[in-house]
From TrEMBL:
The species this protein was found in: Deinococcus deserti (strain DSM 17065 / CIP 109153 / LMG 22923 / VCD115)
The protein's name: 1-phosphofructokinase
Keyword vocabulary terms for this entry: ATP-binding, Kinase, Nucleotide-binding, Transferase
Gene Ontology MF terms: 1-phosphofructokinase activity; ATP binding
Enzyme Commission (EC) number: 2.7.1.56
Amino acid sequence: MSSPAAAPRRRVATLTLNPALDMTVQADGWQRGEVNAGQAMQIDAGGKGVNVASFLADWGADVTATGLLGDGNPEAFETLMRAKGITDAFVRVPGRTRVGVKLVDRTAQETTDINLPGLHATPEALALLNEAVSTLLPTHDVFVLAGSLPPGVAPDFYASLVARLRAEGKFVAVDTSGPALRAVLDAPTLPHLIKPNVHELESALGRPLEDETSVRAAARGLLERGAHVVAVSQGEQGALFLTAQESVRARPPRVHVVSTVGAGDAMVAGLISAHLDSLPLGEAVRRATSFSLGTITRLGAHLPPRAELDTFAAQVEVQSA
């Protein structure tokens, strides 16, 4: 008797409209308005969708990265994608991709971000991006729309793309903030997965979420309108994860924080990998939190070995909420 054919491998596409070269400067104990000594610096290809693709590739997922990338300085992005086996489907646009500065203070265990605006997106560039997405539709099952929108892109860009992708039967995750998140949450069709932090959710909904009861109520409202998973990160308190059937809180163990850059992107990647593996919510939460923990213990959007991730996952406290 012949063995059954293996199920086709599911593919993920991430979209980053506003990528950045992340310049991470370690400056322990730096003081505002003073001359400060730095201990180290590194430059990484970044942007939320790029980071998600990097984490997923480290996990072993089949990932394509698309979006808008300046043709004046693409080398770091191209090197990252080659090294990790990420399919490069970026649309090159004239100019240089922006630089984002991350000031890491290990003494205070804090990271200060300085984000510059991205390249202006022309109608021609957006038309090419639309063609790139159309090319990916037949071969990709999951789409992650992540990060801010550069100048020239309407606030409802993600909202419109969510409706298009869901109509094609794709699983869609969104991680953004500001007017873009507000437009996504106001739209008739919501993504399957939404991952704001509590402050981003408050801003998008236009009301304070003063306690966990109000956060849960806001998340349930999104679930009732068509979202499948809502993950609300709350810093050191952990994160709240809700589906229509259950809600849990994940409390991470204390670890030595090197940099918080990319922690939220790692959580998205962990949730996407859990979706690919059809994990129940509790296991998905442990994996997503382990991705975040693995990230904040090092610089750059890179996962530690699986054994280390498994150790972190085992230490995550998951409670019904």
